[in-house]
Design goal:
Helices cover about 35% and strands about 15% of the residues. The chain is an alpha/beta fold and about 450 residues long. The strands form 4 sheets. It has an 8-stranded mixed beta sheet with strand order 5-4-6-1-7-10-2-11, with helices on both faces.
C-alpha cells in the first residue's frame, strides 16, 4: 500500500480563471513538471461559498445546501477537515477571505482558523482605504454607523487589508510555521490556504493600484471596478460598464497572476520536493468578464466563471501528466480521501476521471432585494462531449463546447425538449445527469423568491 501523505497542503487562489494561468505567459515550472494537471476542470459553484463548500464536501450546491440564498452546509455532511482530523491530521485554515470562515460554516472541522488580516500590518494609505469603504455597499453602510463613529473597527473593515495588499508571503509563512511546529511534535498537518491576490479588485502591485495610464482612463477603470463589485447591472436595464473596459478588468486578473505565480511555484516546490507531502493548488471558481452578457461571477455558469486550473502534486508519484477528461473539482474531495487510505464510492479525479461528470450550478443573487425580475433565475449547466446544456427557468439551452470567438451565447431549445433524454450516453451517466437535474429543480423550487 502507498504511504499516506506526511502533510497535506491544499492552496486555492480565489477566483482564478483557467485562461489567466494558461494564456498569461507566466507559468509555474516546478508545478508543471511534477503535477497532474486537469485541463478541463470545472467548479460546481460560481462564487466562494458554494464552490468552496463543494471542495469541502464533494457535493453539488443543491446537495450541501450552501447557495446564494441558503447560506450554510448541512450540519450532518462530513467536511474534508473533519475527515482529515479523524485520520490523525491536525487541521488548519489560513485564509484571506472572510467567506471561508465561520460566517458560512466553512470553518467546521478545522482545529484553528487563521484570519490573515489579523496578523498583518496595513501597507496601504488612507485614500486607498477610503476607496474600499465606498466601493462595497456593506462598508458604505458602516461608514455612517454609530459603531464606526465611535471608532469600533468592524471585522469587515479589518478584512479590507486583503482587498488592498498582497498577503501571500504572510500566508505561506504561517503554513511553514505550523508544519515545523507540528513535525517537532511528531504530528501531521492538513492545511487549507485561501489567497485573495487573484480576487477582485485583483492585486497587480503590493498595494492597490490602477492599471491604465492617464487621469481619464484611471477614472473609467475605477468607475468600472465600482460597478463590477456592486453588480449594478442586476438592478437596471443599462449596463454601466462599457464593452471596451471589460478587457481592462479581465487583464487585471492576468496581471495579478503574474505577480503571484513565481511565489506560488516556489512554495509548491518547497512543500512538495523530497518531503513526502501532498501539495494541491487550484482555484475555487473563475470570473465572468462579459461571457453570455454577464459581469462578475455571483449568479452565472459559463466557462469563464467555472473553468479553473487544478494541479495535484502527489506525495508518492511525482510523474507529470495531463488529464484531458472534463472533471468536476468537487471530486477532489474523494481524491484526498483516497490519499489517506479511504475508499470512496464517488469518483476520484485522479483514478477514474471519466466518472466525474462536470455539472455547474448558480443561484440568483438577491442584492438586498434590488435584483430585477429578469435576473431572478437559478441555473444548472453540464458538459457533454462537444456541447454544454443549460437549464434556466424550466427551459433548456445549448452552446458549443468551444468557439473561436470566445465564450459562446446559449441558445434556447424548444420548451418541450429535454436534451438529457435524447443524448446518446451510457446508462449510468445518463441516469446521473437526469437525477442531478431533477434534484436541482426540486431544491430550486423550494427557495423562496
Amino acid at each position: 500500500m502507498a504511504n499516506k501523505p506526511r502533510n497535506i497542503i491544499f492552496a486555492i487562489a480565489d477566483s482564478l480563471r483557467y485562461d489567466s494561468v494558461y494564456n498569461g505567459g507566466v507559468g509555474m515550472p516546478y508545478v508543471e513538471n511534477n503535477a497532474v494537471q486537469f485541463s478541463e476542470a470545472r467548479s460546481a459553484g460560481c462564487w466562494t461559498l458554494p464552490a468552496t463548500a463543494s471542495l469541502f464536501t464533494g457535493m453539488m450546491p443543491h446537495e450541501h445546501g450552501a447557495s446564494s440564498q441558503t447560506r450554510a452546509i448541512h450540519k450532518d455532511i462530513p467536511t474534508l477537515a473533519e475527515k482529515m482530523k479523524a485520520a490523525g491530521y491536525k487541521t488548519y485554515q489560513i485564509t484571506a477571505n472572510i467567506a471561508t470562515t465561520h460566517i458560512f460554516g466553512l470553518d467546521r472541522g478545522f482545529d484553528e482558523v487563521i484570519r490573515i488580516w489579523q496578523h498583518v500590518e496595513s501597507k496601504f494609505n488612507t485614500l486607498q482605504k477610503f476607496l474600499v469603504l465606498i466601493g462595497k455597499p456593506r462598508l458604505r453602510a458602516k461608514l455612517m454607523s454609530k459603531d464606526l463613529l465611535m471608532q469600533r473597527m468592524s471585522s469587515d473593515l479589518e478584512t479590507a487589508k486583503t482587498w488592498l495588499q498582497v498577503c501571500y508571503d504572510d500566508i505561506f509563512n504561517q503554513a511553514r510555521r505550523i508544519i515545523k511546529e507540528n513535525e517537532a511534535k511528531g504530528e501531521k498537518s492538513f492545511i487549507f490556504l485561501n489567497l485573495m491576490e487573484t480576487h477582485f479588485p485583483y492585486h497587480i502591485a503590493p498595494t492597490f493600484q490602477l492599471s491604465t495610464p492617464g487621469l481619464f482612463k484611471k477614472w473609467r477603470e475605477t468607475y468600472s471596478l465600482f460597478h463590477m463589485v456592486n453588480q449594478t447591472f442586476l438592478k437596471q436595464d443599462k449596463n454601466p460598464i462599457k464593452k471596451d473596459m471589460l478587457p481592462v478588468l479581465h487583464n487585471r486578473q492576468r496581471l495579478s497572476w503574474e505577480l503571484l505565480a513565481p511565489h506560488m511555484n516556489a512554495f509548491c516546490k518547497e512543500m512538495h520536493k523530497d518531503t513526502g507531502n501532498l501539495m494541491v493548488f487550484g482555484s475555487d471558481h473563475g470570473e465572468n468578464f462579459g461571457e453570455d452578457n454577464w459581469i462578475y461571477h455571483f449568479s452565472n455558469v459559463t466557462d469563464g466563471g467555472n473553468k479553473v486550473p487544478m494541479f495535484w502534486l502527489d506525495h508518492n508519484d511525482p510523474s507529470p501528466r495531463t488529464v484531458e477528461t472534463p472533471v468536476s473539482t468537487r471530486h477532489i474531495y474523494n481524491s484526498f480521501l483516497k490519499a489517506i487510505g479511504e475508499n470512496p464510492s464517488e469518483p476520484c479525479i485522479l483514478t477514474d476521471s471519466e466518472r466525474s461528470n462536470p455539472v455547474m450550478e448558480s443561484f440568483w443573487y438577491n442584492n438586498k432585494g434590488n435584483t430585477m425580475d429578469k435576473y431572478k433565475y437559478n441555473q444548472l449547466c453540464l458538459v457533454v462531449d462537444d456541447e454544454r446544456y443549460l437549464l434556466r427557468n424550466d427551459q433548456w439551452h445549448c452552446a458549443p463546447f468551444r468557439d473561436e470567438r470566445g465564450e459562446p451565447q446559449f441558445s434556447p431549445l424548444d420548451k418541450n425538449v429535454n436534451p438529457l433524454e435524447e443524448l446518446n450516453l451510457d446508462g449510468e451517466r445518463k441516469a446521473n445527469y437526469l437525477d442531478t437535474a431533477r434534484k436541482f429543480k426540486a431544491f430550486s423550487d423550494n427557495i423562496p423568491f
